[in-house]
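=== RUN LOG ===
request id: a7f3
mode: sequence -> structure
chains: 1
length: 236
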Amino acid sequence: MMTLSMLLAHLIGDYILQWDKLAQWKARSLAGVTAHCAVVTAVTALFALLFQPYWWEGVLLISLGHYLIDAAQLPLTQRGTTSGAWALGRFLADQLAHLVLITAVLFWGGYMVWDTAVWHTILTQHPHWLLIIAYTCLAMPAWVLIEFAIYGLIQGTPPDFSCASNKYISTLERWLMMTFVLVGQFPLVPLVAAPRLMMEMPHIRQEDNAHVNLYLAKLLASILLAVLLGLALRAV
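=== RESULT ===
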């Protein structure tokens, strides 16, 4: 349970509670990194202490490691880049580093095991944890991943989050689509995206082909993530 709790703490601290201005501040200065990591520390402590009231050393190791990973990237984020592939690669490397850190600390603390029977028991007895993590993933984490991936792979530029829109609407759409997959109502999945697509179609037609391709690619990626995650949960 501690493993699932630390994963959820990372998703909330590094995404849900990293609002736009904080993310921009973190990319510019060490003070921003410190403020962000203070939020991560508070969330990590809250979720860890639910299961182990005295695991302060694990909380501090995860928080200090998070600070070092983010601070090490500061010279790169301050300099900026025009390469979408580089921005996507840095984002993926950053998340991989955080997950490796959390996994290593959990192993050190004796909370992480590779026994599939143990994991099957945990997931069977506590399916609500998987649902919470899945719905959290489809919120800001999915939105950020889609922005980096689509801009990097199609347009070849980093995403401009200051101009990004529909992040809350698209989150609601992904939640609804995954919910319909979970309850077996697959025909309703495409209907979720239809209202926004119909309302925005006149505006989309006025854009150039590059913007239309980006919009459609992000929409398809959003649908794909929601459906795949729903199917994965049904298979558990």
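=== NOTES ===
The two ends are 16 Å apart (CA to CA).
The mean pLDDT is 86.
=== END ===
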